[in-house]
Design brief:
Layout: H1 3-24, E1 27-28, H2 30-33, E2 38-42, H3 47-61, E3 66-72, H4 85-103, E4 110-115, H5 124-138, E5 142-146, H6 153-170, E6 179-183, H7 202-207, H8 209-214, E7 219-222, H9 227-235, H10 238-241, H11 252-255, E8 262-267
The protein binds zinc ion.
Zinc ion binds at residues 43-44, 47, 152, 155, 185.
Amino acid sequence: MGLASAARRAAVPAQRGSRALWERRGTDRTAQIASTSALVVAPHADDETLGCAVTIMRKRAAGSRVRVLVVSDGAYSLDTAPHTHPELVALREQEARTAAGLLGVAAEDVSFGGLPDGGLAQRRDEVRALLERALAEERPEQLLVPVSCDGHPDHDAVSRVAAELVADLATQPGEPPVELLEYPVWMWTHWPFTSPAGGAGPAQRALGLPRRLSSPRPYLVSTAGHLEQKRAVVAAYKTQVEPYGGEVALSPAFLAHFLGPWEVLLPGGSMSHLGSHLGDHLGSSA
Ligand SMILES: [Zn+2]
């Protein structure tokens, strides 16, 4: 076992404990979440399911509109995949449509930006244009995006663009308010060891731990009664959860972060005091 993997193993109990503590302090929004329409933005096909499957299912079951926008083409695993680039893009789109169907979202309510997987930080203008158009078409009450300190460059880019757009909308007279909610994906692999914004040494990170655990209060959506269906939707992403091109992109240990009693949503902007770079993060490099 190398030093890095030893550190990862040692960190797991602290990560589990901190998450449990954080969830205990959260606000249960299960009842309210169902009645609001939403645009769910996924940097990659599967993020919407990992972070928000039950949230989406509860909304759809209550008759609330949900649109899913997948920003990238999902073709990053091209080098190891047994398919050509266009085949892989088509396959991942098909998986996303299947998943959306299982979530109760109609095929016409899933759209694909087709931007290069892994390259969203370099294409912020195009990401902004995509989100702007979807928001204008949809006029959702809520906008769900990855958390600002998620640590994946594509996720962080989408999150920042969404925050800017919502802030801009708030300054325009006559525009109905859009509630920005942030869902963690990769954050679970480094939380609560996430660096403060701007980076920091180990001592500063340790000193900042109490603040990270005490703020903010997350919103919680109960997965009770929906967990088996969420498992089924996750399983629809065969290229991600089954061996594909020799490796499994999303390990069972990683998937376990999303199959607990709650889905966790953060009030928009509430994690902006934390950094968004991977740094020496404790999780997967995917
Ligand atoms: Zn992603």
